[in-house]
Design brief:
With 340 residues, the chain is α/β, with parallel strands linked by helices. It has a single domain, classed as NAD(P)-binding Rossmann-like Domain (Rossmann fold, 3-Layer(aba) Sandwich). The protein is built from eleven helices and 14 strands. Strand 2, helix 2 and strand 3 form a beta-alpha-beta unit. The chain starts with a strand and ends in a 10-residue tail after the last helix. The model has no long low-confidence stretch (mean pLDDT 96).
């Protein structure tokens, strides 16, 4: 069964390719590579024995999507493609809305044209904004504190309207918490371009000497140690969630919303300590001002995914740190510019 994976060369997408291949699917990738490296597909082939077909195109390219649907028998789409940095989204909001929202509209129009009505959408816990209570259930009030989060929220509403208008659709909205770690082989992992926007890749780059120190954005939140608390989930657990989501819409139509998280929150300083224990490296850090759009605490109530999809996170914090360090220590500069 062929599955179109938008943004499939990225961090989450590449690990999901492995999960899909292991589950017997044939992933087809479209990715403009603005935040990815095509070498990742060579690494996926090393791990699985299968190299997914790559179309180096933007999902806003209607002609490219039409070609893919004509050349392949696509049964479903997993939609990762999108800009994803909270801080950056406050600086260039129009680019975020254009890329994320318009890209999804074009994708859905071309899916409909091709008669493909199964979609798994990469949403985010940012749609909960500054949550009223934690852990956060899927029924919690949705809002957003930054343009990135609003783009995800807008897309969720668009997809609900689409399903309400056409009962052929089966859509799963996966609200991710904080994906970390890497494949245990150390061959694929998170390779941000420029300065990392997420905590763990920043920590690992400090550990290999690529960055001088970690900036801890705020130590005056209402948390146990004053630093922000988040729900960190191993990337392999997250990838498995997408396979379960595909099976959820094998026959069921409608919109299904699931948190993908562990249900446990860790502060920034707890993450630093856990990484130091797993790696043996020391992570110097300094306290910096809060970032615009950041909140104090955010972690999941993940029970619905367990009950309805049979999915739950099974990997712990030490595995997350160990695998992230395996990736970064083997690839201190990330992916090379050409195959090795």
């Amino acid at each position: 069964m062929e599955i179109l994976v938008t943004g499939g060369a990225g961090f989450i997408g590449s690990h999901t390719l492995i999960a899909l291949i292991h589950a017997g699917y044939t992933p087809i990738v479209i990715d403009n590579l603005c935040n990815a490296n095509p070498i990742v597909l060579d690494r996926v082939a090393e791990i699985t024995g299968v190299r997914p077909r790559l179309y180096e195109k933007d999902i806003r390219d209607r002609g490219a999507l039409r070609t893919i649907f004509e050349e392949h028998t696509i049964e479903a789409v997993i939609h990762f493609a999108g800009l994803k940095a909270v801080g950056e989204s406050t600086e260039i909001p129009l680019e975020y809305y254009q890329n994320n929202v318009t890209g999804t509209l074009v994708l859905c129009e071309e899916m409909r044209r091709a008669g493909v009505f199964r979609l798994v959408f990469s949403s985010s816990a940012t749609v909960y904004g500054d949550p009223e209570t934690v852990p956060i259930p899927e029924t919690a009030r949705t809002t957003a504190t930054n343009p990135y989060g609003r783009s995800k929220l807008f897309i969720e509403e668009i997809l609900r309207d689409l399903v309400a208008s056409d009962d052929r659709w089966g859509v799963v909205l996966l609200r991710y918490f904080n994906p970390v770690g890497a494949h245990p082989s150390g061959r694929i992992g998170e390779d941000p371009k420029g300065i990392p926007n997420n905590l763990l890749p920043y920590i690992t780059q400090v550990a290999v000497g690529k960055l001088k120190e970690l900036a801890v954005f705020g130590d005056d939140y209402e948390t146990a140690d004053g630093t922000g608390v988040r729900d960190y989930i191993h990337i392999l657990d997250l990838a498995d969630g997408h396979v379960k989501a595909l099976k959820r819409v094998d026959s069921d139509k409608g919109v299904f919303t699931y948190n993908l998280g562990t249900g446990t929150g860790y502060s920034v300083l707890e993450m630093v300590k856990a990484f130091e224990e797993a790696s043996g490296a020391r992570i110097p850090y300094r306290i910096a001002p809060r970032r615009p759009g950041d909140i104090a605490a955010c972690f999941a109530h993940p029970e619905r995914a367990r009950k309805e999809m049979g999915w739950e996170a099974v990997r712990g914090l030490q595995e997350m740190m160990r695998d992230a360090w395996a990736w970064q220590s083997q690839n201190p500069d990330g992916y090379p510019e050409s195959s090795d």
